[in-house]
Every structure is written in C-alpha cells, then in structure tokens.
Amino acid sequence: MESEARSRRLVSTGSPFERQAGYSRAVALGNICEVSGTTGYDYRTMTMPEDVGEQTENALATIEAALREAGFAMSDIVRVRYIVTDVRFADAVFAVTGRWFGEIRPAATMIVAGLIRPEMKVEIEASALRA
C-alpha cells in the first residue's frame, strides 16, 4: 500500500480554483487517472468564452494537457461525464465531443444541472485507464 501512495501523482493546471477548493485537476495512481470536472476557462487568460462549443473545446484541451502530464492520452479515456446547464446545449457539445472522441468512444453520460458560476455552461470529467 505504501508504494501505491508514492506513485500517486497530482496534476494541476495552475488554476486558482484548485488551491481554493482543495482539489487537483487530475490524480493518477498506477494505470488509472481521474480528471476532475473541467469547465471551459482558458487558464492562460482566465477568461471564459460565451459560446458553449468553445467552452467544450477549452475543457477538452485542459483535460488532454492534464492527462499528458500524468503520462496518459485521450485514447486512454474509458468514461466521460458531461454536465450542461441547459438541455439546448447538448447538440453543440456533442459536435465538439464527437470530433474528440469519435474513434475513442468512451462510455458517456450527460447531465443537465446548475454549475457554480453563471458563465459556466459545460463541465466535463473523465476517467482514463492505461492498459
């Protein structure tokens, strides 16, 4: 068990939200990597685009960078959860996720729910398993 604890890797995007709320963008342990719910902020500028498709692109780019830092790839994703604030956003989100996950085809769930900031329209979390 002690060797497992030492192989636990915490990944940060440098977002102030991570320290404030006490979480990591991703946690890798052995051949598993869990990526926290990720919204559409551009973390370089700390801005949020208005368009839900752009938010989805940003979220997936952040997820990809976190996975890469942890030694994983998008193709290792086996499960995704999409949370949108309005059911009318589903098609715009799917247009983007279809490009990113078209060949990977992870198990997926979409939930309609409120998010913690009014500018947030989509949040995505992912689970990756490296074979």
TrEMBL record:
SUPFAM superfamilies: YjgF-like. CDD domains: YjgF_YER057c_UK114_like_6. It comes from the Bacteria. InterPro entries: RutC-like_sf, YjgF/YER057c/UK114. This is Endoribonuclease L-PSP. It comes from Aureimonas ureilytica. The lineage of its organism: Bacteria, Pseudomonadati, Pseudomonadota, Alphaproteobacteria, Hyphomicrobiales.
